[in-house]
Recover the amino acids of this structure.
């Protein structure tokens, strides 16, 4: 990426940005099958209702929207442009997650800027570099370069029954505070949850090897698909000196360069790893893997899971 890619949309014209934000809102409403109105447009773009009505008129005059029963709908041309914006946003978020050390809570804001700046050619090149991902780090589908959108998946976590297992396939990234709370609890797209109980204002789940209480505001932002129960496992950090086990998986919260480093070191499912010795301060700890000795910090070894 260019040297200034950390804030690629800083120079985007405000008028263009407002139009593109409006198209994205209409697309999201269409995909969610919820009505889009001037009032919802005002809230999404952050402008007064009178300005939103004028904006709706601009979109209609440009042939990007029509109306049906008092709601705003995208034309084929409007949908095509909206999906280019959505594609740019979600590809850029995927880039931030997989190839940078940018904090999780920054992904959405930076992608909101980038979507107004990146050309379709730059987005396609970035998608190729990332292996043409179908879903972004939150589990949102990424439109293909020809505008095809993968189907909606999953059901709300709050509808899952007690005792069931589900894999997180979508974690809503807005409002930001809710997403930040979910990330702090270790919930990411790809995480596996076992539903333990419903409490007053929370949902108790087993996440990886620990039990946590998800506030209902957080649980309502999560969608899951049924999955097989996770195999018995424990964190690598729990091995005693001289004890060996085999890697089951890495936590989905290990991202970007850190994940690539773990995989390059051989920490892949099925690999045998042995706790060798601790440093004088207790961290990092030395582990033997494939004939080599590697050092891992406690917070890293806590998120690598081995067979119980």
């Amino acid at each position: 990426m260019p040297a200034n890619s950390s804030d690629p949309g800083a120079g985007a014209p405000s008028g263009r940005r407002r139009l593109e934000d409006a198209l994205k809102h209409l697309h999201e409403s269409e995909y969610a099958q919820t009505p889009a109105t001037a009032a919802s447009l005002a809230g999404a773009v952050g402008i007064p209702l009178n300005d939103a009505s004028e904006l709706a008129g601009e979109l209609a005059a440009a042939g990007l929207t029509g109306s049906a029963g008092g709601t705003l709908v995208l034309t084929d041309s409007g949908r095509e442009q909206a999906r280019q914006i959505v594609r740019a946003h979600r590809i850029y978020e995927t880039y931030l997650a997989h190839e940078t050390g940018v904090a999780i809570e920054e992904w959405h804001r930076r992608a909101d800027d980038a979507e107004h700046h990146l050309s379709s050619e730059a987005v396609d090149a970035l998608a190729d570099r990332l292996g043409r991902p179908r879903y972004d780090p939150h589990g949102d589908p990424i439109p293909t370069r020809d505008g095809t959108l993968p189907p909606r998946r999953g059901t709300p976590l709050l509808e899952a029954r007690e005792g069931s297992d589900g894999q997180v396939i979508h974690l809503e990234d807005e409002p930001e505070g809710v997403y930040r709370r979910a990330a702090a609890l270790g919930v990411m797209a790809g995480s596996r949850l076992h539903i333990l109980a419903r409490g007053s204002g929370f949902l108790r789940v087993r996440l990886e090897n620990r039990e946590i209480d998800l506030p209902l505001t957080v649980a309502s932002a999560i969608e899951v698909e049924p999955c097989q129960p996770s195999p018995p496992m424990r964190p690598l950090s729990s091995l005693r000196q001289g004890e060996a086990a085999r890697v089951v998986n890495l936590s989905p919260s290990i991202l970007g360069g850190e994940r690539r480093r773990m995989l390059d070191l051989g920490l892949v499912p099925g690999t045998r790893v042995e706790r060798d010795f601790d440093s004088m301060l207790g961290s990092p700890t030395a582990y033997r893997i494939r004939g080599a000795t590697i050092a891992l910090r406690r917070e890293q070894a806590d998120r690598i899971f081995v067979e119980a």
In short: The domain at 155-226 is CATH 2.30.30.90 (SH3 type barrels.). The chain has ten helices and 14 strands. The longest helix spans residues 76-99. The mean pLDDT is 89.
